[in-house]
């Protein structure tokens, strides 16, 4: 079994899609290990998105993710990382995400793509330590 970090980003919280996202995670058979509504400060945002530092959209991304509360979850199950990325769909909600996925069903713009899921075991370990240090994974 594997753990991944899932975020419902500020656009998803603002639009009232928290229940929809959690429901899809549960219906897939994944388990919630931790769940929290959280205001993201600049330091956490920059650490979370460190790999994008220097890219043209970095500043806008940091402003977006710190602009309102997010829901952070630690999600567990067999192949949890790939399983949630399948639920989320591709990064661009129109060009990449298929209908039936969270982004494909609810998103239009690449920045406002509603959810985040860790993309590898290394990212999941790094991100879970940032968002849920108390889990001690
Ligand atoms: P996430 O890391 O949030 O799960 P991802 O792995 O699908 O998304 P990344 O390429 O890591 O996508 O980009 C991180 C986030 O940065 C995206 O989810 C999106 O919100 C934002 N983003 C990515 N590309 C762009 C872009 N070209 N313009 C604006 N925002 C972008």
TrEMBL record:
All residue ranges annotated as the Nucleoside diphosphate kinase-like domain in the record: 1-136
Subcellular location as annotated: Cytoplasm
UniProt keywords, alphabetically: ATP-binding, Cytoplasm, Kinase, Magnesium, Metal-binding, Nucleotide metabolism, Nucleotide-binding, Phosphoprotein, Transferase
Protein's GO biological process: CTP biosynthetic process; GTP biosynthetic process; UTP biosynthetic process
Top EC class, one word: transferase
Listed GO CC annotations: cytoplasm
A molecular function (GO) term: ATP binding
PROSITE patterns noted in UniProt: NDPK, NDPK_LIKE
Catalytic activity: a ribonucleoside 5'-diphosphate + ATP = a ribonucleoside 5'-triphosphate + ADP; a 2'-deoxyribonucleoside 5'-diphosphate + ATP = a 2'-deoxyribonucleoside 5'-triphosphate + ADP
This protein's record includes keyword Hydrolase: no
UniProt-annotated catalytic positions: 116 (pros-phosphohistidine intermediate)
Residues binding ATP: 9, 57, 85, 91, 103, 113
Enzyme Commission number(s) from the entry: 2.7.4.6
Keyword DNA damage tagged: no
Cofactors, names only: Mg(2+)
Recorded superkingdom: Bacteria
Subunit annotation: Homotetramer.
Function of the protein: Major role in the synthesis of nucleoside triphosphates other than ATP. The ATP gamma phosphate is transferred to the NDP beta phosphate via a ping-pong mechanism, using a phosphorylated active-site intermediate.
NCBIfam families: PRK00668.1
Similarity comment text for this entry: Belongs to the NDK family.
Protein name (record): Nucleoside diphosphate kinase
Organism name: Saccharopolyspora flava
């Amino acid at each position: 079994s594997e753990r991944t970090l899932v975020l419902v980003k500020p656009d998803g919280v603002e639009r009232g899609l928290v229940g929809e996202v959690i429901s899809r995670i549960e219906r897939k058979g994944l388990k919630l290990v931790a769940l929290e509504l959280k205001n993201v400060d600049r330091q956490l945002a920059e650490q979370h998105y460190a790999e994008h530092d220097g890219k043209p959209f970095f500043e806008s991304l940091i402003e977006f993710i710190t602009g309102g509360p997010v829901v952070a979850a630690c999600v567990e199950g067999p192949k949890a990382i790939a399983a949630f990325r399948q639920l989320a769909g591709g990064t661009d909600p129109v060009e990449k995400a298929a209908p039936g996925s969270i982004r494909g069903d609810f998103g239009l713009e690449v920045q406002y793509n509603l959810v985040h899921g860790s993309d590898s075991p290394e990212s999941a370990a790094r991100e879970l330590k940032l968002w849920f240090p108390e889990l001690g994974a």
